[in-house]
Amino acid sequence: MPRFSIIVPSHGVAGRLSLALDSVLAQSYGDFELIPVCDSPGSPAADVAADHAGQDSRVAPVNSPPSAGLSGARNTGLRAATGGYVLFLDGDDTLAPGALAALDARLTQTGDVDVLYFEHERTPWWEGEPTNPAAPLLAKTPADAFSPDKAPQLTGVQFPAWSAAYCRAFLTEHRLAFPEGRFTDLGWGGLVTVAAERVAVLRSVVVRHLLRRQGSRLNLPGAHHHQLLDQVELVLTAAEGLAPERSRALFEQLFAVVLKTASRPERLPSGHRAFFRRAGRLHRTHRPAGFRAPGGSLGVQHRLLAAGAYTAFKALRGANRLAAGAAMGVPPGRAKPRARGRLPRPRMLRTRLRYARDLRRPLDPNLAVYCAYWGRGYTCSPAAIEAKARRLAPHIRSVFLVEPDAVDSVPKGVEHAVIGSRKYWEVLARATYLVNNANFAEGVVKRPGSVHVQTQHGTPLKKMGVDQSTYPVVAAATGSFAKLLGRVDRWDYNISSNRHSTQMWERAFPGSYEALEYGYPRNDVFCTATADEVARVRRELGVPEGSTAVLYAPTHRDYRTGFDAGLDLEEFCAAAGENVVVLLRAHYFYDQGRATSSGRIIDVTGHRSSEDVCLAADALVTDYSSIMFDYANLDRPIVVYADDWEVYRETRGVYFDLMEVPPGPVARTPEELAAVFRDGSYAGAESTALRARFRSRFCDFDDGLAAERVVRRVFLGEPPESLPPVIPLAERVPAPAATLVRS
């Protein structure tokens, strides 16, 4: 029997689940079992858990449907647990280093106890210092194991489920389980403490809890707040017969939570009076003998609640809010000013005034605004969605935002606005739909009712978003992470092309958006293009008839300034074979809008469509560019040129070791790279096997129907179940390569 069973529910946190599991597996104390609770086999979290289980036999995943909620997931984990003590860990939290060793040492000191409470840190996502709210409460308890009567203030109500270790035999004896519904931690904490006879505390941090940037979901408006009273009634009923001091402390702490909700009517858009009345009945029914209401405003609220005086309670609440507003310098009858970060910042005074005026006008329900790469042109997924919307949702007016030098990239018949112009700010103020593959300017206000679709523009191999913070070179170039997260807060939907991306975006860009696992719309063409279209693109790019076109697409190096091809391409062509030509596509940071082609090197960096360039290529050579994930959808040969992998990995940060799962042969030197083309191994059986493994992992959803799914879901409001299902990878037919065109 292991010393500890650690139960980790994972619904909605697949992106950070590996961090939680790794924090357990990295513990110096190893006598434990780790039980991730996943939605179902094949879910993103289940894939993460299965990967860890394959590497460590102590990991034993179980499944609980999302409909069972957090309580169902924890109870499923409890039924599977075999350890002497049970701990709970949220899927986006971590165990502090040395936590299990500290718990074991403390339990050795105290002997068997029913519950061992410990401290925890609440850590903000980005700005602010961690706090330790449990420390003051635990500091007042006896040094050794004790009866709960010795510390009546330790009721369990103020502690989350993951702030204690529980003796499994004690839980089994008392048939303790998490109550159904919301606020299950409150019910669990109260029931456990009521039943406990011997407890102890550990005055050191065990869990590091990551505060959600948008706050607790329990605080959002909704009818679920009525379930708070269900949990309160459950605990108060179980507490009948407690010692008077414990009973009074439990009652006071429970109703502090109740009154906090009652004093915030915005949490209950309807049924607030019913909530107040039921709370009052519970107060009168379960009030312990000798209970004295606390002083100040809270004591007045207790008395009004007990008396059922709803009108007087409302008046007191209003007076308290006016007093709070006055303390902040807000005159009566005037709303607090908007947060500074929400203010628009167009440069010219006249433009600012017009934008402010347009923000007061109603949203146009049929207006969609698109932008790609900060205005570089009509391209990428926003362009693919716009084109599909013109076919499936012709009632939507589309406006594409471009820089002045990219106006000629917009097709005839597509409306555009130049970035910074009067029209630009007008359509941004009134559009219901905003689609971008990067981010709109900070001055753009996200209006209530508008829908922001983030399409992304690649699959993350390198660290992104807040995950860049520990890499100094990258962090310095990124700028303010707080501002970055403010832009993320505008997203309603985030499009993903594979499950790896879904998980990494959740880590890198924490927010309240919904992930749409629909595939990248820009990659639709890889399944829909014909042989004639492939031939046309090759002619437009100047690829000689009968040649093997190798696309060379190196990524940006954060530790370098300016573009460096990293390879003598003329020498490569000479060594690789007489029919080889290179399509050079530098990172878009180095797009100067002019070609520098010479000999067998065709510079396609300035070509607007990376998809066209991929269609024209017979093979891809890249280092660590995300283009490899897109190109893999064509099922054509890929070679990784990794001459500086170790340096890149250390300075930029990566999410996985590309050398362990490459999409094809890996070359470390120019000679090795030329050799794989000269001897044909770039397209041989081993290369094909590596590519098949890579495609199975990273080509989940790109089946040619991504743009249609987005338009039907976002613009037409169709339910997810009515959208075209993803075509299995084995059934997809990629666009033909040029060799098939010639045959």
In terms of topology, how is this protein built?
Blueprint: E1 4-9, H1 14-25, E2 32-38, H2 44-55, E3 62-63, H3 69-80, E4 85-88, E5 94-95, H4 99-110, E6 115-123, H5 134-139, E7 164-167, H6 168-173, H7 184-195, E8 199-210, H8 226-238, H9 244-262, H10 272-286, H11 296-307, H12 310-327, H13 349-359, E9 364-371, H14 380-392, E10 397-402, E11 415-418, H15 422-430, E12 431-436, E13 451-454, H16 472-478, H17 481-488, E14 493-495, H18 499-508, E15 514-516, H19 525-528, H20 531-541, E16 548-553, H21 569-576, E17 580-584, E18 601-603, H22 610-616, E19 619-622, H23 627-631, E20 638-641, H24 645-652, E21 666-667, H25 670-678, H26 685-698, H27 706-715, H28 738-742
Parallel strand pairs: 1-2, 1-4, 2-3, 6-8, 9-10, 9-12, 10-11, 12-13, 13-14, 14-15, 16-17, 16-19, 17-18, 19-20, 20-21
Antiparallel strand pairs: 4-7, 5-8, 6-7
Word description of this protein:
The protein has 743 residues and is α/β, with parallel strands linked by helices. Helix content is 39%, strand content 14%. An eight-stranded mixed sheet has the order 3-2-1-4-7-6-8-5, sandwiched between helices. A seven-stranded parallel sheet has the order 11-10-9-12-13-14-15, with helices on both faces. β19, α23 and β20 (638-641) form a beta-alpha-beta unit. The model is unreliable at 322-344 (pLDDT under 50).
List keywords for this structure.
eight-stranded mixed sheet, seven-stranded parallel sheet, 743 residues, single chain, 21 strands, alpha/beta, 28 helices
